[in-house]
Model the fold of this input.
Amino acid sequence: MRRNRIAARRLAACLTVAAATVLWVAPPACAQARTPLLRARHLAGDAPVKVFFPSGAITIQAWDRDSIDVRGTIARGERFYLAGGDHGVKVGVMDHVDGTPVRPSTIVVRVPRRSEVSVKTVAASIDARDASGWFYSVSGPIRLTGAASSLEVESMAGDVSLDVAAPWVRARTGGGRLAIAGAPQDLDAATVRGALDVDHAAVVHGRFASVEGDIRFAGALPGGGLFEFSNHAGRVALVLPNTASALVDLSTITGVIDNAFTQIRPVAGQGGRGGTLHVQLGPGAARVTVRTFKGTITLAKESP
Done:
């Protein structure tokens, strides 16, 4: 009998351990790895805001309050900071002294509408609405929308998307795609290898450049507008409405000019290489200049 009772107790203990093993479920990794964040303070309506956010996703929103509000989740073990005074603050997640990667976090930052922001990330994505200032990332994508007083944006490897109304905009990408819409009145846009697409943006003065990426401009040309395009090896395509009014000057050193807008043929360059084309569309209210080294230039009509 004693031997049977001992065996029974051992069996019960084993069943208890097994049940605990089956029933215990680890909490989700995100619950273990994230700490909720909510920080706020008074801030002058025109105070500058400097942000450093290495990894994850950051959203910047302008609002009509004299305060800054930061909320989201911070990766456990990472150090968040909000430092400064009423006339300027620094916000972000501290980098690691030993150079190890910073774990991704997610935050939303609300700033006064008249604040100038300076946002820098390593791999984190940036999404900003109605915010003015400087936005930079090494490899993260950047998306800006809404109205701003001025914008300077650059991502070395990530895509950049702009749908903004602003008097002055400067945008750069390395290998990422640069897409532009909205109403950036004075625009300076360039890529190294990435495509540059301008889709019916209300640009008045535009400079567009690339080394290897294709440039495509589709939309109307306002009267008095000035547009300059340059490319080394990539293509430049102008897709204009049938009612376009512009003086167009196209030239390439060794590339090809394809005029599908009028019946005028380009003049071949020296030795039959490259060529030039000068054509007036309508009354010629805008000025357009396109230069490439070996990239093809296309002048085409927009589909009705």
Observations:
- The chain has two helices and 25 strands.
- The two ends are 96 Å apart (CA to CA).
- Residues 29-112 form one domain.
